[in-house]
Description:
By secondary structure, this protein is mainly α. It has a domain at 10-67. Helix content is 67%, strand content 0%. It has helices at 10-23, 27-66, 76-79. Helix 1 packs across helix 2. The longest helix is centred in the middle third of the chain and has 40 residues, at 27-66. The chain starts with 9 loop residues before the first helix and ends in an 8-residue tail after the last helix.
Amino acid sequence: MMPPIQIRNQDVVRDIRRLAELKQQPITDVVAEAVRAQLNEAQRAREARTLERMRGIQEIQAHIAALPIIGPLLTDADLYDEDGLPK
């Protein structure tokens, strides 16, 4: 069981109580609703950042794929010795 949360900031406590009063809901419900809304917003923002990074990666990959191949392609034999160590 997780320990209960204690809010020591009186301004936050006052705001929670006021919101609960205005919405005519229990304090726990008001806090739960606010936290869930923030969690949803944070998750959407994180997903948007991830998609943006993926688009950036795909752009870089497309740019690299479009570059001309100059000279012969290197093989493992060109890069590693007989023991598998870099040359």
